Amino acid sequence: MKSHKTTTLFRSPKSDKGRFTLLCQELREAFEAEAKATGKERLLLTAAVAAGLWTIKGAYDIEGISKPLDWINVMTYDLHGTWESKTGHHTAMGPEGDKLTLPFAIWYWMNNRDTWEKPGIRNGMPANKIVLGLGTYGRAFGLANPANNGLDAARDYTFTPKGKYTGAEGFLAYFEICKLGLTVVHKNKAMAPYGYKGKTWVGYDDPASLIYKIDNIVKKNQLRGVMYWAIDLDDFSGAHCGQGKYPLMSAVKKYLTSGVQPTFPVTQPPLPGSTAAPPVVTTQAPQPTTPGGGGGGSGGCKAIGAWAGNANMDAWCVSNCAVGNCPASMCKC
């Protein structure tokens, strides 16, 4: 007989939906009165809100809160996780029509309805009041069968991966994920990377998938901007992933402020001194707009600097320089 962990959820009464709207309205009035009385700038009023359809429907009067709030931070992550019986990407962009995706969550907040038809009169949240939430972490599952390692694969309830530093089952920071040596799949129906190794399965975002979200949600809908959960889950020291400090947030910032896609490795290089094999990528990530330096790539490419003499990094340089991604600080051909 199987025994599964259960989670008890406590729901607030339905009347809280209207009370939250009233709270927002009263706070806005109080902030405006204070600004008028003191001559100081009015305090901003924002809210972090859910991305799941049924939570949105049950918790928010979208039209009612759209006026008093300056903007909302939509928590478009944790759409899937270990509370489910199969693997799923927590920041999925697809498939089309799936209501547990980032595009649908933003659509619903903008249009206040759960159909995909072109809107007539929108009674949702104005686009310039919507901030897209981005995750710098991954959601992990244990696989029931390591050979069945795609999306919607059955999970093993007796094993759930956890990070060395974060220590929470089913939750890993980006700086932990990049050291796992996963086989990474970029091309899939969720349109965001996932990786697997043995019984471990992790869905996460990398610089390329975050920029894809910026193009197809933030820029396409002219949203206000982005926010993150959380700063300390990116590679904040730059010591883990070989992509510099804060590689995820830096990539997004550079793209939003300059329109230039930052260069990043086609696969993540092993750390200096690491004996782990570099991760295998089953589909090639987007190419950088300009080569990072070095030659065109050949079997003679070698790792340099902190990676000099590392056989795994030599192999990484050979494979990546061959496709034009040859960072001068890492490889010499």
TrEMBL record:
One of the GO biological process terms: carbohydrate metabolic process
Q: Which Pfam families does the UniProt entry name for this protein?
A: Glyco_hydro_18 (PF00704)
Identify the residues that the record assigns to the GH18 domain, covering every copy.
Answer: 1-259
Superkingdom of origin: Eukaryota
Any one cellular component term from GO for this entry?
A: extracellular region
SUPFAM superfamilies listed in its UniProt record? (Trans)glycosidases, Chitinase insertion domain
Identify the stretch(es) annotated as Disordered.
267-297
UniProt entry keywords in alphabetical sequence = Disulfide bond
Q: Where is the composition biased (Low complexity)?
A: 274-287
- The answer to whether keyword Disulfide bond applies is yes
Give the GO molecular function terms.
chitin binding; chitinase activity
Q: Which PROSITE patterns match?
A: GH18_2
Alphabetical list of PANTHER family matching this protein: CHITINASE (PTHR11177), CHITINASE 12-RELATED (PTHR11177:SF317)
Q: Kindly provide the name given to this protein in its UniProt entry.
A: GH18 domain-containing protein
> Source species, please?
Exaiptasia diaphana (Tropical sea anemone)
